[in-house]
Specification:
The protein is mainly α. The protein contains twelve helices and no strands.
């Protein structure tokens, strides 16, 4: 499993660099508002830096999918969070953004969480069983929870609401991607292209990721990367951690010490992401 987690680190690095390039174009590119989403998307696609950022993120995501096939989604979520700490460091160095003491504390917590999850590796099984009803319930609850911040005008104006919504979309996409790999592996007798093309979770994954990408770009337009990215990331990791246990029956290590370390790593992941949000102001 350690090999898969190391590949997860590579994937998270590619995603972090891609997100940095995307944020660098955030203020210059138009926001995708209702009625103008298509026009804004065409403008983004004509921007070579933005397009390059999407290519890097696509490469990182493909590697993430490969790792996901042999790793519990709740465990991989913690490793992928390390890319957010890297994003924040690069935002300070290359974009000139400033981190508050709370945000720097969040970075340290995320690094400690990655160490803790690595030390917690035991003989726990990596296979997952898909519970379709539980995944549908997680989806409904997530959509309801994600809509609540939009009820606050201040959160909408500051970019916090759309950043949280993007994290929700990415988190659901991670669960759908895991479901995709589960169904593909479960039917080895059918040609791969048929298993992929007829799998509904392929299209749910694509829609959720696309929606998350658009909302994250909007968040980058309204808020600093040091604010938008941790907020998005905190939710995008909370959803797979909770959803992986509910929808895929992913369990903690049998050894109490390793289980406690894993729980601590999950808790630090969420805490670190929230702390990195700082004052939640742009």
């Amino acid at each position: 499993m350690l090999h898969h987690l190391l590949l997860g680190v590579v994937a998270s690095t590619l995603l972090a660099v891609g997100l940095l390039l995307m944020k660098s174009r955030g203020p210059a590119l138009p926001e995708a508002r209702r009625g103008h989403i298509v026009a804004a998307a065409f403008t983004w696609l004509r921007d070579p830096i933005w397009l390059g950022s999407v290519m890097l993120q696509t490469l990182g995501y493909l590697l993430y999918l490969y790792v996901l096939a042999g790793t519990p989604v709740s465990l991989l979520a913690v490793v992928m969070q390390g890319g957010i700490a890297l994003f924040l460091l690069m935002a300070v160095i290359f974009l000139g953004e400033h981190a508050s003491p709370l945000e720097w504390t969040g970075i340290v917590i995320i690094v400690v969480a990655m160490i803790a999850v690595t030390l917690s590796l035991g003989a726990d099984a990596t296979s997952s069983r898909l519970d379709v009803r539980a995944l549908a319930l997680v989806t409904v609850l997530g959509l309801v929870a994600g809509s609540l911040p939009n009820l606050d005008a201040r959160l909408r104006a500051s970019g916090v609401a759309v950043a949280l919504a993007s994290g929700l979309a990415f988190g659901l996409a991670a669960l759908y991607a895991k479901a995709l790999t589960c169904l593909i592996i479960a039917d080895p007798g059918t040609p791969l292209w048929i298993r992929v093309a007829t799998n509904p979770y392929l299209y749910l994954t694509a829609v959720a990721n696309l929606g998350g990408l658009v909302m994250l770009q909007n968040a980058f337009h309204r808020a600093r990367g040091l604010i938008a990215m941790p907020l998005s990331s905190a939710l995008s990791n909370l959803v797979p951690i909770a959803g992986g246990m509910l929808a895929f029956g992913e369990s903690l290590p049998a050894e109490p010490r390793l289980a406690a370390m894993r729980i601590a790593a999950f808790a630090m992941t969420i805490t670190g992401g929230l702390l990195m949000a700082g004052s939640r102001s742009s």
